[in-house]
Amino acid sequence: MTDPAAFYGENGYYVARGLYSKEEVTAFRAHFMALREEGQKPGDFTGVPIKRTADPTVRAAIPDEKPDPLQQYPRMLQMHRWDKTSLDWLVDERLNKILTLLLGREPFAAQTMLYFKPPGARGQALHQDQLYLRVQPGTCMAAWLALDDCDEANGCMQVVPGSQNWEILCTVPADTTQSFTDVTVPLPEGVTPTPVVMSAGDVLFFNGSLVHGSFPNTTTDRFRRSLIGHYIVGDAQKVGEFYHPVLRMDGSVVDLGISEGATQCGVWVDQEGEPVIELVVKENMITRAHE
Ligand SMILES: O=C(O)CCC(=O)C(=O)O
């Protein structure tokens, strides 16, 4: 049997299979679909506009005349600030137990998100969450609950095992025909992300520096919904302003400082034929809320 902490230490992620029952995920799906039907909510994000290209070959490969499904199903953000179901889930004891095991102490809770990812929706380009949360000292951690079975066809999560040990990389423009966000991080040659195939009810835990993201949902009939919590290490002193108020796992508010935008990020350079990360000073690094 896999030792969760050892697997997480080596790979930067861990999947807890069947942590939530089929009945629970069915209830979550119904709850969030009903909230979506109610109309616009604070923090909704439909994604950046798709930047079309003039290249006829590329254009031919993109169903660019179709309406973007994310217009109807924008991502929800920070629902726990106005929805009790989301708050109860964010601080759920089952998540706390595994987070505490993987992090070595009880975390603080900073964010909730709900991805609907309907058929035809774009994915989210590879990125590192710590770029946005800017936890100091230490890092953040995500708990990603699959509300639908997910595989490569409907755009399951993709992770780069071992990248939790990388510096935070400088971002480059992303392909917005494939991603609803417009920045990504480059991978060295030969490194490719690994798909994480999950059943509804499984939870993927991953480190804030782990490079991760997802490709488009290429199915015509399957959503890929997920409920996500973002946490920060329990000895953190600062986090980005967007994530305040931060909660303890008993739901009470913890008084933390606000971390400023980073001024350095990593770029890949060649060192005797091996790709290594070199830190460079960069002004105007992205400091927006996690997108
Ligand atoms: O669900 C996805 O496709 C991406 C989620 C993600 O990047 C995150 O939870 O940080």
Can you walk through the features of this model?
The protein is of the alpha+beta class and 291 residues long. It has one domain: Jelly Rolls (Sandwich). 18% of the residues lie in helices and 25% in strands. The chain has 6 helices and 18 strands. The chain has a 6-stranded antiparallel beta sheet. A 4-stranded antiparallel beta sheet has the order 4-11-6-9, with no helix packed on it. Strands 7-8 form a two-stranded antiparallel ribbon. The longest helix has 16 residues, at 22-37. The mean pLDDT is 92. The chain binds 2-oxoglutaric acid. 2-oxoglutaric acid binds next to strand 5, strand 11 and strand 12.
Summarize the structure.
This protein is α+β, with helices and mostly antiparallel strands.
> Which CATH-level-2 architecture?
Sandwich
**Number of helical elements:** 6
Q: Report the principal-axis shape.
A: globular
Number of domains: 1
Quantity of strands, as a count: 18
Q: Could you tell me the strand content as a percent range?
A: 25-35%
Largest sheet: 6 strands, antiparallel
Task: Write down the secondary-structure element order.
Answer: HEHHEHHEEHEEEEEEEEEEEEEE
Fold-level CATH name: Jelly Rolls
In CATH terms, the superfamily is q2cbj1_9rhob like domain
